[in-house]
Amino acid sequence: MIMLGAAVLGIAATVLGLVVSWHWGTAAGASIAAVAVALFFASALASHLYGRTSSDTTTTAPVEIDETIER
To answer: What pTM was computed for the model?
Structure first.
């Protein structure tokens, strides 16, 4: 599901970047990159506002590995 969302955001950045480039007369690549960066910051802001940060995740205790080798 995350990869699908990433693909959709990439397509949106490309299409919106090309539209911005067409209407404002800017370079296409720079416009696409600017839209992608804007989408990143919008995503980071939404993540922060909805409390979905990496510090909220739980971690498991480290697993002890038995390193003895039987021959």
So the answer is: 0.68
Q: Which of 43, 14, 44 is nearest to 31 (CA)?
A: 14
Q: For residues 39 and 58, what is the distance between their CA atoms, to the nearest angstrom?
A: 27
How many whole angstroms separate alpha carbon 46 and alpha carbon 36? 15
pLDDT attached to residue 71: 65
Give the single-character DSSP code of 57.
S
Residue with tokens 């038995």: 66
Residues ≥6 apart with Cβ < 8 Å to 35: 12, 13, 16, 17, 20
Q: What are the pLDDT digits (tens) for 48-71?
A: 998 876 655 566 777 777 777 776
55 touches 47 (CB < 8 A) = no
Q: What CA–CA distance (Å, rounded) separates 42 from 26?
A: 22
